[in-house]
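User: I'm preparing a small set of examples for a lab meeting where we compare how different chains pack in three dimensions. I only have the primary sequence for this one, and I'd like the structure in token form so I can line it up with the others. Please keep the answer compact; I'll paste it straight into my notes.
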Amino acid sequence: MLPRERVLMALAHEQPDVTPWQLDLTADAHAKMVAHYGDPDFLAKVGNHLAGIEDGFFEEVRPGFWRDGFGITWNRTIDRDIGNVEEILLKEPTLAGYTFPEPDLARNAQQYDQLVAENPERFRHAGVGFSMFERAWTLRGMESLLADMVLHPSFVEELMDQILAYNLKVIDHLLAWDVDCVRFGDDWGQQRGLIMGPKHWRRFIKPRVAVMYERVKLAGKYVMQHSCGDVDDLFPDLIDMGLDIFNTFQPEVMDVQWVKKEYGQHLTFYGGISTQQVLPRVGPDELRQVMRQMMETIGRDGGYIVAPTHAIPRDVSAENIAAFIEVVHSQ
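Assistant: Understood. Below is the structure token output for the 331-residue chain.
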């Protein structure tokens, strides 16, 4: 079977010939594996089943500091992949003085063309990272935004409406391309529960995310949601909203076996191999055992894409990354 066929079969909750897989690496982990294999093109040989891109771009404004399209500068001197917000742009609970950008649709179009042309056999997704809550807090600051939900709710509504308007321009544009799925990235969870709590999630985030999901579903595409953390309380809401694929599926914050039993008829889970408690902490033999057990249980009857719960970080050994590749190839 082709990789795309396996993913589509898993999404139909049917058993493919093998469990589809995906391996994503941070810049440091990628460099480690290039040295390990002596092959700068090793990742192309892993056989990943998904291929995707997100709206947005970064430009380096000085060494190690990158500015995104919203004017936010990210310090990447330690974390080369994402970084830390250098300065909050919305210092007060008002949008006065700040102009929302227009998405660079011409640049996006070039990327979509490339995605489709280069990945005919893989499950293709495009979408919006920092798609609601994360975009809001990167502009306003995490603590201030959470306080605003209580003290200045009308400002939060206005801010998130502007983010939604931007996102819908991106979504409406990308739906013209031959992609299988639209992916939304927005971290809502922490190690225990939701960052903003369920009441504020349902007031400020859910209605706007529901609008985006509906736009995608009406176009006949699948919807994927990425959120780190303990968010399993939201699965009934997300299923009602039309979600198809949930990532990151973290076993250290949720009972993945129970979640699969409870919601597996509705959702395909993508992830499950912990980057907190397994990949950096166990040896290759134990990792192989964990992966095989996950594929045999969570992957039974489809509905699973085996993957690390996030792009593999620098603290994971080359031997464990190689073991991951070995296990998926040996199915």
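A couple of notes for your slides: The radius of gyration is 20 Å. The longest helix spans residues 153-174.

User: Perfect, thanks.
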